[in-house]
Amino acid sequence: MPILGKASPEDMNLHPMHYQWAYDLYNTAVRNTWFPHEIALKEDLEDWNKMTEDERHAVKFTMAFFNPAELIVNRSIALGIYPYLKSPEAHLYLAKQMWEEANHCVAFEYVLETFPFDREKIFNVHLETPSMKAKEEYVMKYLKRMTEETLNIETPEGKKDFIRNLVATNIVMEGIWFYSGFMVVLSFRQRNQLRNFGSMIDWVLRDESLHLKFGIQLLQTALEENPELLTEEFANEIKSIIVEGVNIETAYNKDLFPNGILGLNADYVNQYVQYVADRRLTELGLPKEYNVTNPAKWMSTATDVLELVNFFEQQNTKYEVDSGHTKKPQT
Amino acid sequence: MELTITKRDGVKEVFNADRINRSIERAALGLMDPISKVTQIATDTHVTIYDGITTEELDLATINAAVQNIKEDSDYDRIATRLLLKTVYKHVLGDYGEDPAQLEKVHKEHFADYVKKGIENKIFDERMEKNFDLPRLSAALDISRDELFIYAGLSTLLNRYSVKDINQKAFETPQYCFMRVAMGNAYNEKDPTEWAIKFYEKMSRHEYIAGGSTNIHAGTPSPALSNCFLLEIHDNMEHISKSVMDVMMLSKASGGLGASITKLRAMGSPLSSNNTTSSGPTPFAKIIDVAIRAIMRGGKKKGALCFYMENWHYDFPEFIEWKHNAGDDHMRMRTADTAAYISDEFMKRLEAKADWYMFDPKETKDLNELYGKAFSARYNEYIKMAEEGKLRMWKKVPTTEQWRAILVALQTTSHPWITFKDPINLRALNNNTGTIHMSNLCTEICLPQDKENIAVCNLASINIAAHLKKKQIDWQKLEESARLAIRQLDNLIDINVLPVAEARKSDQENRAIGLGVMGFSDAIEQLGIPYDSPHAYDFTDKIFEFISYMAIDESANLAQERGSYTHFSGSGWSQGMVPVDTMARLEEERGVAIETDKKSKQNWLDWDSLRAKVKNGMRNATLMAVAPNANIGLVAGTTPGIDPRFAQVFSRNKISGKYLDINHNLVTELKNMNLWDMVKTKIIELQGDISSITEIPAHIRDIYKTSFSVSPYAFIEVAARAQKWVDQALSRNMYLDDRDMEKTMDIYTAAWRKGVKTTYYLHMKPRHTAEQSTVAVNKSAKLGKIGFASVFKKEEAVTGNQELVSVAAEVVKEEVIEKEQEQIIDQKKAFTLPVEPVKVEPIKVEPLKQISEPVFAKVQTQLPTPHAEGQHYQEKIIDGKTYRVHMPTDPQEQFLCDGCQ
């Protein structure tokens, strides 16, 4: 069974399983389930009161982007990815991913409701800020081709559109933009501020890492099964989609940090974006574009190593549901 | 772009890079290759600052730049520590120039002012000046001991324990802080100055560190110095309400709490006041859960409490769901922890595959007070009554089913912790005043409580690693530390001010203290002993037997000097018993042998004369308890409690911040072997697990395991050996890699069979973690996928583009994967060594070991007997002739040979 195509009645059977990896990722995702109310934000509010205007702006701006962005990803999955896959195990995974995007949206909602924000203002930022609007338009541009100007997924052009949209949503939006946003939020925790919000971002980041794993494997599988897509021209086009994403993000970061705050400024974040973009390019088998180093070395503490939590001080972000239930009781 | 700096007075000046560089240079004094390190930090600082940054932020930026390089070289830790110290000195002592001699002088001179100013501002008790010879104390201050700190330790001390001024800025230097704690525990000595100096000498060298509350409150006007409180909640509305208040008051005094709710009647149990029924313990627990959220303990820690329930309670099945993340929020505890208090009867029924009965405590009031054989007898009577229809509320389940349900909850939510009622009570020497109904927040305290008594414990911990000298324990120094710590803890009780009468009463009448141990893993690493080896278990015996002996002897000495504690008469001590003697009682009541080596490993200690001495009087009801020491362990820069290294590199998420913890012992070993630069990135990539890095010699990999690759049976064995000598208990963190339920059940059953009193958190290894940021990651390469690279491969012949060729090289097949890794290493080098790239050999990586089997194999707890086989030589053929090559006969010696080569 090819992974791309229109689902036929036979594709409604989970067995025989063709794409075990998708099913495995589904199971991992299910164990990863968390809920926003597990995070208590009281102490973060105290931090908020001590923060400078530039710091607050960065947090609000990031929230203003993430809240709608999670819903845009969902739309892209529902309209641009899910309908064009035949594999039911991939459908299972995407259903869980969509719930996770919804959960992230609600999680940001929970933060928005808890912090003393002018909510109306924040909700409107993404409609009024050109650099943020550009990001949304970028994703919608590719999605539109999957919806309104529908091409046949069975044709090479249709498949190319599928890949373009997948790259825009999964690689650029989730795999580059979100990663840079997470780094910005986690940098506050690195200075011992917004620790609980940081824990929530840990959870979101863990989910997003899975989304990216799935997206990259889906993309690789689609390319492998459709070698006719592997042309230099198309490869260069994909690269340019990613580079375009980085350029849009550069403008956005200038608005995120008009002045800079302790430990972060627009150039610093842009360098991180470029570093992550190079990683994504390499993962797709494309040559690097930027060849820059990772400025945020502290991310090794934030995300790269296992975390030992002093339980009665912090929310542990490493719990899993459904552990241990692998065997039936023998009584 | 020209940068400006905003100074403290608001004046702007042009950023002067040279000035920053020089201050970093001073902090790098005496380290290897300082220039490249200074350049690195200066460069990293520069990218993070912005126009208009304040001088204070600039200091922070420099410190953060140093901190983020710690993973490269532990020297950066030293630099970060010194930079942080400098900000404290500047703030507390004012401008001292840059001369170290001047700093030392000013630091001593300012001390008297510091004490006086503290009293003036009402932060300090007047006795801080009245009772002491301040010039003598300031002469004893040694600022060079600040060099002992690691960055995370100093930062923890400053954040959590140091006294702050009204603007939340440092009011004291670290050495002042230690001296304040020493003084605050010496008021009542005949010569307070002399004793304060003795205590200071110990703490400032990190040989022992006082418990958290003591560090926070010592020297202050109404010092609440105790760490742990254990209270029972009784089955009536007045007492429940009073308990909520007590919990809040005690939390405010910065104590952690244990609260038993076993006595609360079950849901559905009738109320006598009218004809309605009770809502059970859950809603009342929820009130407390919410109450502790509101409290910041001592303004520095969030309230913390652990609920205890015996597992025969009718509502126990609901209790084990309390920590689930889903479900009705009113039935979930978001802040409080939970622990199951399990009887021998239950464990024996588990082995017999019998049923387990649950009752309403309203109908079975006495069960909560009974233990050992008496509990079993009464429990069986209630079963009979139930089956005969004489009880209103009861239910039964297969015992295995409840055990499984407890452990499934433990795996998914890390709660309830497993604690054992019978070993706690049967091995106690202090429960002549009543039953011990629970342990405490960290499962190391075993003290009785009732309506009139809220049990109180006062803690300090000895740092074993600070007692090493030339690969040996300095036993004399260890004795001195144990004796001084006991004296300091006993002093504390007469200075302590507690907000609740029942706690005051219990504190004064029992004088319970808990001397603990930390740096266990740190020490055995330096001695070359793996955590999961029989040598480590024997070492545990040695250490704990010794400290136990000295602690008991010192308390007996204090009794002669100051009198026995109120309830001494009738206690186990008064019958000439010492903790190890109670093993027999546990075996006798349990009717099952305790599977732990009972022998002494310090044959020269004269326990018999100590037994005789103890009979004449003891100053304290209890002496030892091994707390988790998550914070004071960090302050001392060592491993907490008896825990293994969590990983060789990991992060700690704490109230004071998120820290990277890197094992300095390992870094030193690897640097000595010239391996560090080669493997450091790999260690982060493997999340601190070095077991698969073949460049590192096998014996080093055996010593430096992560807590998930050490056998869980080793955790139990270490706890069991230590528990022999400890009169209270130990916070035994558990770590599991494997989610197999049968194995988990067996591990916890083994803990019971070995006589362990309590276990603490269960840490499960996460199966999925976020994508790493600072090491090279290529998900496609891991899958063996090349994506668009094949496109460029086709073009390669035509274009000959070098860059593209290297990308195309990332091909699927195995032999190419090696190349892949080579490339990853190269990429990493690009940013980890920005100064001068060094040619590094590619790292060979073994496939990750399937650890579940070897890890879960039961550990060998005894050393093999030397000469057991009669043959202690090997036959080797050299040049065609057979030679007998003799091996060392002492297995310990053989081991050390291996360990130190």
How would you describe what is shown here?
The complex is a heterodimer of chains A (331) and B (901). Chain A has 331 residues and is an all-alpha fold. Chain A has a single domain (44-304), classed as Ribonucleotide Reductase, subunit A, CATH 1.10.620. Chain A has helices at 20-31, 42-50, 53-81, 88-114, 119-128, 130-147, 156-190, 195-225, 232-256, 266-283, 299-304, and one strand spanning 307-309. Chain A starts with 19 loop residues before the first helix and ends in a 22-residue tail after the last strand. With 901 residues, chain B is of the alpha/beta class. In chain B, the strands form nine sheets. In chain B, strands 4, 5, 6, 11, 12, 15, 16 and 19 form an eight-stranded mixed beta sheet that branches. Chain B has a three-stranded mixed beta sheet with strand order 2-1-3. In chain B, helix 12 (237-252) packs parallel to helix 13 (281-294) and helix 22 (534-562) packs parallel to helix 29 (712-725). Chain B is globular. At the A-B interface, helix 1, helix 7, helix 8, helix 9 and helix 10 of A face helix 2, helix 3, strand 10, helix 17 and strand 20 of B. Strand 1 of chain A pairs parallel with strand 20 (649-654) of chain B.
Helix content of chain A: 55-70%
Cα gyration radius of chain A (Å): 20 Å
Q: In whole angstroms, how far apart are the ends of chain B?
A: 55 Å
Counting DSSP E segments of at least 2 residues, the number of strands of chain A comes to 1
Poorly predicted runs of 5 or more residues of chain B = 797-838, 849-854, 866-874, 885-901
**How would you describe the shape of chain B?**
globular
Q: Which architecture of the domain at 229-425 in chain B per CATH?
A: Alpha-Beta Barrel
Which oligomeric form is depicted?
heterodimer
* Second-tier CATH architecture of chain A: Orthogonal Bundle
Enumerate the spans of chain A where pLDDT stays under 50 for 5 or more consecutive residues: 311-315, 322-331
Estimated helix fraction of chain B: 40-55%
Topology, number of strands of chain B: 25
Number of domains of chain A: 1
Mean pLDDT of chain A: 87
CA radius of gyration of chain B is 30 Å
DSSP strand (E) fraction of chain A?
Answer: under 5%
Helix and strand succession of chain A?
HHHHHHHHHHHE
Total DSSP helices of chain B: 36
| Biggest sheet character of chain A | none
Determine the CATH topology of chain A: Ribonucleotide Reductase, subunit A
Keywords (chain A): Deoxyribonucleotide synthesis, Iron, Metal-binding, Oxidoreductase
Binding site for Fe cation 2 (chain A): 174, 208, 211
Binding site for Fe cation 1 (chain A): 70, 101, 104
Function (chain A): Provides the precursors necessary for DNA synthesis. Catalyzes the biosynthesis of deoxyribonucleotides from the corresponding ribonucleotides.
